[in-house]
Amino acid sequence: MAAAQNRRTTEEAPDVAVDIRDLRISFATDGEPVHAVEGVSLHVRPNEVLAVVGESGSGKTVTAKSILGLLPESASASGAVVLAGNDVVQLSPDQLRQVRGRDVAMVFQEPATALNPVYTVGWQIAEGLRAHGQHSRKQARARAVEILGTVGIPDPQERVDHYPHQFSGGQKQRIVIAMALALGPKVIVADEPTTALDVTVQAEILDLLRRVRDDFGGAIVLITHNMGVVADLADRVAVMYQGEVVEEAGVRELFADPRHEYTQHLLSAVPRLTTAASDSEPAHSAQQQDETAAPLVDARDLEIVYPGRLGRPGFRAVDGVNFTLAPGEVLGLVGESGSGKTTIGRAIVGLTRATGGSLSVLGHEMVGFRERSFRPLRSRVGFVFQDPATSFNPLLSVGEAVAEPLLIHGRAADAREAAASVRQLLDAVHLPTHYAHRYPHELSGGQRQRVSLARALALEPELLVADEPTSALDVSVQARVLEVFSELQQRLGFATLFISHDLAVVGMLADRIGVLYRGELVEYGAGQQVLTDPQHPYTQRLLASVPVPDPVEQQSRREALAAHRAAED
Amino acid sequence: MTSASTEETPTDPVAHGETAGREPRWKRLPLVWHLRRSVGLQRGMLVAGLVLSALFVLMALLAPLIAPYSFNQLSGPDGSFPRQAPPSAEFWWGTTVGGYDVFSRVIWGAQTAVLTVILAVILSIFLGIALGLISGYLGGWLDRVLVTLADAIYAFPSLLLAIVVSIVISGGESGFLSGILAAAISITVVFVPQYFRVIRAETVRLKAEPFVESARVLGASTPRILSRHVLRNATRSLPLIITLNASEAILTLAGLGFLGFGINPTAAAEWGYDLNRAIADVSSGIWWTGIFPGAAIVLLVLGITLVGESVNDLSDPRLRIRRRPRRQPRRTATAMKGAA
Fold it and tell me: Can you give the residue range of the structural domain that contains B284?
C-alpha cells in the first residue's frame, strides 16, 4: 500500500529524481541510541547537482547513503526516500539490489579501496551490468570499453584489461565513476569524490562530474566539506548541522547571502586564496626576523632515497632540494601527495633518514645521524602530526600526554610537578584546564590538534614542524586551530616548517613558500610573490586548479584553467 | 576467572550518576566490561561460560571440603575400598580399577587443572610479551632469529613437544609440584610462540603509529616508549588468547596424563590419567570411571572456550550485538561517532 501511495506522489512531481521526506535515522550504540538524522526533507531534480555540506557528524553521509539503502545494521530509519516510484526505506534486500546500479549508483571517496585489486577494471564494470542480467559477456565488455572512453580513459580498448594498480589515483576515480554510470542510473551519490585526490586531479574529476550531469542527464547528490568544490560544481546546496538541514538554497544565493547563522560561520571560516596582490599581507610578516642569525634548518642538495626491493633501485622521494629556515620564520611547503613534503619534515626530526646532500638541523648534520647524539637537541624541536586521532596514546589522559615531554627531558620529576606547566600550556591553546583529566577520545578533532600543539610547544622549542596539521579537520575547526597557531607563533616566535597541500592555508601563514613537485623544489620565494606571480608552470597550474568558495569567481577561474590547459597541450 | 556474581550488575550507567566521566576502574576490567556490554545470545554464552568456569574454580578451591576422600586414598576406616564398585551412597560416582573414589578424583583433578593452567599462562605470558615487544620494536637480526625459532616450535606437533619437554624436565613421571611444573613448562614452551607472535605483530603495528613516533620525536628512551606507549596498547587481544590457551592447556595436560607422561596418581589427581586407566573398563560395561573425568574435561574446556569466544565477539564493535534503538527519535542528539 505504501508503494502505491508513493507512486501517486511521484506522479504529481514528475521532475524529481529523488525525494527524501522527513527522514530520521538513529544508530544503536553501547549507550543511548544516537540520532544521526532528524527529519531531513530534500529533493533532487534530474540534471541537477545538489551539494550536501556540513561538518563530520552532521549526518550528511548517512542521509546520502540512505538513498541507496546502504545503512549499517545498527541503524534504523523512518520516513521516506522515494526513488523512481519506490520508497527505498521500505524495500526488501532483494528489491534494493535491483534498485542499486539501475536507479541509483554511488561514487566512493577513496578510489584506491573502492576497486577490487585482483580483477581487471573491465571485469568490475561488467560485473554490475551482468548482475542486472541485461547483457551477455561480450555486450558487457563492449559497454565497459565504451563507458571507459566516455569518462576519459585513453585507449579504453586496451586499458579495459588492466588492473586497478596500473591506473593513477585520478584515473581510478574516473573508473569508479564509469562503474556508477554503466547502467545509466538517474541518480548518482558522490561521497567526497575528490577529497582523496590532489588539487590538479580534483579539477579534472569535477569537470567529468559536470559532464555527467550535462550529457547523461543524471542527478548528482554531492557530499563534500570543501566549499570550493561546492562553488565549482553544485547547482543547489543543502547545509546540514547536527542531523538537520538548516539552510537550502541555490548555490549563488547561498554564497552571496547566507541566511542561517551556521552557514555564515561556515563560509567565513573557509580560508581564501589571495591570488591578487592585496593589502592583506600575512599578519606576522611584519615581525622582525634576524637575517644574520644562523639558520635553524639548512638543506643543501638534500636527497632522500627509500631503499628499493632487492635488485631494484630505490625510490627517490626528495631530489636535490635547497632551502633554509631562519629563526622565527614560517616556511610553507606545498605539494601534492608523493611530492616529498612530508618526507622532508620527517627527515628534519630524524623519523626518516636523509641519504644524500646535507641537512643541518640546529647545527646537527642529519645525514647519517645517530639517535644518541641527536637526542639532546630533540627538546628544541617540536612536531605536530597530521591525524589528531592517532597521534595520542589512547591510554594516557590529555594532561599526561602534555606532561610527557617535560618528564622525558627532566623538566619535571613527576606528573604532580608538571601539572602547573600543563595547565599553562592548555590555557595557551585556549582549552579549559580541567581537560587535563580527559582522555583523547573524549575530545573533538580540533581540540585534540590544539593539545597536540601544546605538547609540541611544551619544551618551548625553537623549531616546530607541522605536518598537515589541519587537513584532517573540518573547515570551521581548522580556522580556530590556525588562529591559535598564529597567535602562539607571534608570541613565542618559534620558527615553523608548515607542510600542507592546501595553498590557501599556507598563504595565510607562511612568510616564504616552497612548492615541491615530484621531489624537486620547483618554486621557492616570498609567500605573496609565489601566490601572485608564480614562475614555474606547475605552480601556475596548481594555483589555477584550486577551487575558490565563490561560484561566480570560480566560473571565470574554471574557464581560465581550461585555457591554461589548452595552451599547455 | 571472575566470579559469576557480576552478572547481577545493573547495566544502565545513568543509574549510578555517571555522565561523561570515566567509569570506575573495576567496571573497565576485561570480563566485567564485556559482561556489561553484552546483550541477548552473546550475554547467554558469556554467562554460561563464566558460570561453568567459576564452578570449576570453586571446585578447585574447596576440594578439601567437597571431596569425601583424598585423591590418593585407597582405604577408609572400614578397610580397603572395593575396586570398580558401581556408584553407591558411599562412593557417589563409584571407584576405579585401582580402588580410588571417582568423585574425589574428579574434584581434586580440578585443582590440578586450574593450577597448571594458571602456571602455564603466567609463564608464557611473561616470556611471550617480553620477547614479542623487544623483537617487534628493535627488529633486525634478533627479530629474524626469534621469528624463525617460533616458527620452528609451531612446526612441531604440540603434544609431541610437550612429551619431550616433560621427559626432559621430570624424566616422565613425578610428584605433585614437579609434575604440575613439568606440565606447565611444557605447555609454556608450546604457547610462548603464540603470545610472542601476537605481541610482536601489535608492536610492529604500533611502532608506526603517530603517537609512538611522537614519543620518539620528544626524545623518549626505548624502554620508556616500550613500557609506557607500546606495551599497554599491545595487550588488548591478550584476554582472548588467554582464554583460548587456557582451554588448550587443559587438553594438553589431559593428553599428557592420558599418554602416561603426567602426574603420578599418588601425587595428585589428574583427569587424563584417570581416563587412561578407564580404557579397559569401557568394554566391560563399567561406565562411571570414564564418563566423569571425561565430562569434567569437556565442561571446563567448554566453559573457558565460551568465555573466550564471547569476549572475542564483544571486543569487536562489528560483531557486538546491541539493543535496538527506540523508534521515537528525540531532540537531544549527541555528537555522532564516526558514522558520517
Answer: 70-305
